Each structure stands twice: as structure tokens, then as C-alpha cells.
Amino acid sequence: MKTSTITTPIYYVNDVPHIGHAYTTVAADVWARWKRLRGERAFFLTGTDEHGDKIAQAAAARGETPQAFADRIVEGFRGLWKKLNISHDDFIRTTESRHERVVQGIFEKMKAKGDIVKGVYEDWYCVPDETFFSTSQLKEGKCPDCGRAVEKLREESYFFRLESYKDRLLAHYRENPEFLQPPHRAAEIVNFVKELKDLSVSRTKVKWGIPVPSDPAHTVYVWFDALINYVSAIGYDPSKDWESQSGDFKEKWSGAVHLVGKEIFRFHTVIWPAMLMSMGLPLPRKVFAHGWWTVEGEKMSKSRGNVVDPAREADEFGVDALRYFLLREVPFGSDGDFSRKGLLGRYNSELANALGNLLNRTLNLLEKNHGGQIPDLAPSEELMGAQALNSWTRAVDEAYDRLAFHEALQKVMDLVDAANRHVNAKEPWKLVKTDPAAAARCLYEVARLLKLAAVALAPVMPTIAVEMWKQLGEAGPIPDAAKLIFDHGDLRFAPGQKIAKGSPLFPRKESNPAKPDL
Ligand code: MSP
Prior knowledge:
Layout (H helix, E strand, L loop, with lengths): L2 E5 L3 E2 L6 H19 L3 E9 L3 H9 L4 H18 L6 E4 L3 H17 L2 E11 L4 E3 L17 E10 L5 H10 L4 E2 L4 H9 L4 E2 L1 E2 L7 E2 L2 E6 L1 H6 L1 H4 L14 H7 L3 E5 L3 H15 L6 E5 L2 E3 L2 E2 L10 H8 L1 H11 L6 E3 L1 H30 L16 H16 L3 H22 L1 H7 L1 H22 L4 H10 L6 H11 L30
Parallel strand pairs: 1-3, 1-13, 2-3, 3-4, 8-14, 13-14, 15-17
Antiparallel strand pairs: 5-6, 5-7, 7-9, 10-12, 11-12, 15-16
Helix pairs in contact: 2-3, 5-6, 11-12, 12-13, 12-15, 13-15, 13-17, 14-15, 15-17, 16-17, 17-18, 17-19
Bound molecules: 5'-O-[(L-methionyl)-sulphamoyl]adenosine.
């Protein structure tokens, strides 16, 4: 069976995790969970980027060694992923020896090959962004990305001969239209590559990092170091060529998908592919850049004091509702705004009123009028016929696969809305008095759609989906049902299936006066 590998960027440990980190990680988690639910094998990698001046300075400011500081901050990431129900298969830290060894091996391999050469570097450096800029790139003398002051650096440096990969990179983009995603971001990369320059990949001034083995006065540039995590974590051996790598590595690396924020798309679509070409490794199948969140309409920043703590939101709204909001609010790939009004609005209207209420009223009526069990009926065309079911499941499957999470969730909400309209139109609580068979039919069809919704929502809301499942009286595991539903359109219930009504999934939330709605 083919393994589908998905990665998040490895996060800097200079500060605690925020909603932006949670976003990429939840998205990768949903994709991995979807693959697993569909019976495929997924490998989901995340981790932390722990070297470089930015971390060293943050540690120094707190009077800690960089390693002790990283060890402490990394726990915040691990703890948050646990809380958010993230199902990663591995967590790589760039300070681990399994990573450092590989970085050193790759550096020396490229040096021996003539792809890394010594020279002199002079340019503007932004410490917080760990990025060099030419004078023309600066904005009013400041960092064009973050607007902070930059410093002039002149030092002996090793260079990766990035420019020599220009034509091969352009050819790769042309021949693999799926590589740069979403497609509207491709032009910027192509233009950037046309002007490509060699890349400085070592620093003598930076001490906190991986030393170049053959020239230890040099520290490997933090981005060169960080990008390698994607292969060091899964067992790449730099002393061997691609054919001689382990079967496990080849399996995991072939066709990998990288999720990244839009600001680091370039690193993953230009520098990283060129490094892989130099290493003689295949390129990832796709690199997907998602957008950025503003907070209540403003850029999120420490200085503005508006950094959103995902743990706090999860405590208030529930982990699953937060995961839902992040993927539902904006198309993956576009920018979005994280606002209390938006979160509360979606929570109440879509989760509490539409989904939660549909389950609740259906189970109430089944309990009251139909002996607390799903009527023993065969599927009909009344609410969703076989053909409609088939095209719906295909659309959801395909949307998840394309990372179009908002589309998959929209499909689920369309289903929920259709079911609610059906109940409103049929009024099974009245119908039961005049035509009990028709009332049973109505509730049976709605229960079918709720079962379908639970499976389709499972990657986004894993805990809620299981709760819905239990309340519908389903005994078997969701993945088994997913296979039957998505491969065979089989939405049957067990004969005489007893429901198990529980507490409401999404208690309505009032707007909190302590946190005004805007
Ligand atoms: N360490 C590098 C990545 C190296 S990958 C080989 C790095 N780390 S980071 O901690 O700064 O953050 C990485 C991720 O967080 C990016 O995907 C970025 O887009 C995401 N976000 C940070 N702030 C964000 C928002 N305000 N909104 C959405 N995502 C944002 O870069």
C-alpha cells in the first residue's frame, strides 16, 4: 500500500505556539486523518526548528542556554498538539542527532560535488526572519517582510549554487502543474526563479547551529538546516544515492505533500527543490501555501498584544469546534480573519443550530414516537437517492484530497441544511398521528444523512463525530463504515438499531460581555 506523507513546517521555538501554527497543523492532521479513514496509509510529520540567532537571542534574553530554552518551549508545542488532537506520526527537532548527522552529510556531499563553494557574503540580514535581502529589496531601509531594522553582514560564507538549478526548476514547474499550489501563487515563484542568485548557506557569526564538519568555524544556515528535516526524520542516508536508500524512506518520501504558510512558499518551492535535485532525490508531489490570519481585522503581533492562543479558544468553544472554524471560515489558500464574532457566529448557526439541533430533534422524535430505534426500512429516493449519494461522496473525497477543506465542510453543511428543511416540511411530530409510516420514513432518511455527516466530519471533528456515531447507536468503528459508504454507497443500519441519545453536542453560546463581539 502506498504511503501518503504530509508535513507541516517545523516551527521556530522562539516563542509559544499561536493560532497560525495551529492552522497549518490542524490542516495537515485533517488530511492525514482523511487518508487513514479511506483505508490508505498516511505519514504525518511535524516538528520544531531550533537553531539560529533568533532562538539564541530569545534564550539569552531569558538567561537560558539555547538548548534548555528550546527544550522548554518545545513542550508547549507538544502539549498543544495533544490538546488539539493532532495525530502526527513523528515529531522532529532540529537539535536531535538523527537530524544533525544528515544535515552535515548533505552539506559535505554537496561540497564534494561542487554544488557548495566558498565565497564572501555581503548583504542585509533580518535577524527575526533569518533572511537576507539585497538593498533593492529593502522597504525604506527596513525588512520588506516584517518592517524591522536590518543589519549589514559581510563575511566569508559557503554558497549553494542555486542559480545553476534555474532551468531545471522552471522545467519542473512547467511539467508538474500540481507542484505549486494554489495555482495563483505560481507566477510569483516563476518570476523569482528567473532572477535567481546563489544562496549563502553558512554563517561564521552565528554560533547556535550545526557546524560544517570540514570547516567548523562555519555554521550551517538555519533554512538549509531546517528544510532537511523532511528527509532526516524519515531516514534519509546522505551516503547513498536514491536507489540505495531504504525501502521505508523511499516509500515515505515518494509523493510527499508539504503544507506551508504563504510567506515561506519560496523556500519550499525554490531552495528545497534545488537542494533535492543536488541530492539526487525526487521532488515532493506538491507544496501548498495557505493564507494568513489577521485577528479582528488586524495583523497578529506580539506588539499589538492580539496573538490568539489556540488553547484558550479550544477551552471556550471545544477543540472540535475550533478545528472546524479554522478550516471552514476561509478557503484553504486564502487569507482570513479570526474574529470572535466569526467564531461565535459559526458555532451557533452551523454547529449548534444546524448540526447539533438536527441530531437532537431526530433522536428525540425517534425516542418519543418510534421506540428509540432506527426504523427498519430500506433506503429510498426520498431525501438522498443512490445517485445523489454517490456524487456527494465523490465530491467530499475529492475535496479533502485537494486540501479544499472548506468545500468538504460546505458539502456536509448542505446535507445538514437539506435534512433540516426536510424535517421542517414533513413535520414528523404531527405526521406520526396521521401516517406513522411516513413519519418513520422521514426520520430514517434523516438518520442516514446524519450517519453520513458523522463520517465526513470525522477528520475535522474526531471527538464529535464519534459522539454522533454513538448517539445514532452505531456499534462498529467509523473507518469500517467509511469504507462501506465511500466505496459502496452503503448507508444501512443494523436491524432494530437502538439509538443512544446523549447530551447536546454543541450547547449554544451566548456572546460573552467580557469579550465583546467587536
Ligand atoms: N521555522 C520556519 C519554517 C521552517 S520549515 C522547514 C518558520 N516557522 S514559524 O514558526 O515562523 O511558522 C511557520 C508557520 O506558521 C507557517 O506556515 C506560517 O505561515 C504559520 N503562521 C504564522 N503566523 C500565521 C498567521 N498569522 N496566519 C496563518 N499562519 C501563520 O517559518
